[in-house]
Amino acid sequence: MAIQYKFPEGFWWGSATSATQMEGAASEGGKGLNIWDYWYSQEPNRFFEGVGPESTSDFYHTYKQDIKRMKEIGHNTFRLSISWSRFIPGGEGEVNQEAVTFYNNVIDELIANDIEPFVNLFHFDMPLEMQEKGGWESREVVEAYTTYAKKAYEFFGDRVKKWFTFNEPIVPVEGGYLYDFHYPNVVDAKRAFQVAYNTMIAHAKAVEAFRTFDYPDSKIGIILNLTPSYPRSQNPADLKASNICDLFFNRSFLDPAVKGEYPKELVDLLEEHGQLPEMEKGDAQLLKNNTVDILGVNYYQPRRVKAKEHLPNPYSPFMPDWFFDNYEMPGRKMNPYRGWEIYEKGIYDIMINLKENYGNIESFISENGMGVQNEERFIKDGRIEDDYRIEFIQGHLEWLHKAIQEGCNAKGYHLWTFLDNWSWMNAYKNRYGFFSVDLETKERTAKKSAYWFTEVSKNNGF
Ligand code: BGP
Questions:
Q1: What is the pLDDT of residue 241?
Q2: Is residue 227 within 6 Å of ligand 1 at its C-beta?
Q3: Measured by CB atoms within 10 angstroms of the end CB, which terminus of the chain is less buried, N or C?
């Protein structure tokens, strides 16, 4: 078949996952507790069907065979995260030798299979002791994270050439401090902004530390979930709502990470409402000096917004949502399981924005995917026929291809995710993998999309 969408030479084909969601072995190998282990022990009912993070997809024990599977379906790159509480139980102090052995084995096995490891340092999984010290509200924790990052570079930096400080740093802000879907389940915008700000400081310090190492062909970046804010209409009130949304949910991390400074409009808005976080002398310079080399873009769904229908209750806690309402566009295409709109062109709009407003920074799609419930319905002859997922990936790749044709600096595409994995409060509700996982036996079976992806990677297009 003729290839209609050919990608640039050396395009990164692969997938992404995170430690807590995939490794399992939560109380093995000397791992300390993180906030997920703890929260689950306190409130198991808040997790879909009461399934917690203790064994997830068992990658800790099966990494060898799993990496072989990655190779078979055409991965040339793969993103994992290091579990801070596994590597340094408690978050500070001694490095855990069993963790060093595990991550060394994974990294070496990937490289032996010609799969470049992309390593992320923080994917929502704060060590419990660090949370008890105040989590990202505390500068002490920022320092501990910086030390952890240095240790990771020291132990693995000779082989890992792509590093990421954080995955979607805004999600713990939203989940933990605004909307009650991550521990510590606080609802307090002022604290949320402090968490967001200190996370950025931790990020910049980790970038700064990275550059003291002599790894000349390595890069460091951050992974952000960039969700375009589409206004309902061109009415100035709708435009204003979408602009504020963009400031809160995209530019709050994108601008400091890539440009080294916060948008003035955002700072002014927070100041006007008495919500500015505490800053320290030297922070602005730190951010300015430590912008990223590379940006990972996670994209699942667009955000559609409109001007508020009603004035916010002045007695309610301050929220970003004081400035906009979500807009349910009639006829929008939905993934009903996850409740997310599917809008493939969003990927193109993000890339054009990076090209036009962010110096066309080197980037890649670091997550994109479709979570579907009860996929067993689609089993035919022993395999899940996930044509909907193929269609989803293809639709997004077509727009990514167009962006690249127009000069965007996008280097790859990673699916979320390789194996069905544990999705936080949703546990195993929605499945995202190229491979399904039987939760009883942990047996893996390739879905139709895995075979399709093998061809795409082999042909460098479709
Ligand atoms: C991203 C996260 C992942 C993953 C994915 C799917 O936001 O980086 O950790 O979970 O979303 O979302 P969910 O698991 O909520 O369905």
A1: 98
A2: no
A3: N
Q: Which residues of 305-341 are buried (b: 16+ CB within 10 A; e: fewer)?
A: bbbeeeeeeeeeebebbbbbbebeeeeeeebebbeeb
The protein residue with its alpha carbon nearest to ligand 1, atom 2, reads 168
Residue 224 pLDDT: 99
Active site residues: 168, 367
pLDDT of residue 338: 95
Residue 165's pLDDT is what? 99
Nearest-atom index, ligand 1, CA of 167: 8
Q: Give the whole-angstrom CA distance, residue 222 versus residue 168.
A: 8
Closest CA to 102 of 175, 25, 160: 25
Question: Class of 12-459 per CATH?
Answer: alpha beta
- Break the chain into its structural domains and give their ranges: 12-459
Nearest atom in ligand 1 to the alpha carbon of residue 423 is 14
Q: How far apart are CA 118 and CA 76, in angstroms?
A: 11
Select from 322, 437, 337, 328 the least CA-distant residue to 384. Answer: 437
Closest Cα to atom 6, ligand 1: which residue? 423
Taking a C-beta distance cutoff of 8 angstroms, is the pair 193, 276 a contact?
yes
Residue 434 sits at φ, ψ, to 5 deg, of -70, -25
Contact 125, 56 (CB under 8 A): no
369 alpha carbon – ligand 1 mean position (Å):
9
Give the model's pLDDT for residue 245. Answer: 98
Residue in 327, 345, 339 with CA at minimum distance from that of residue 423? 339
Which ligand 1 atom lies nearest to the CA of residue 225? Answer: 7
374 Cα: distance to centroid of ligand 1 (angstroms): 18
**pLDDT given for residue 308 in this prediction:** 98
Q: Is the CB of 167 under 6 A from ligand 1?
A: yes
**Which regions in the chain score pLDDT beneath 50?**
none
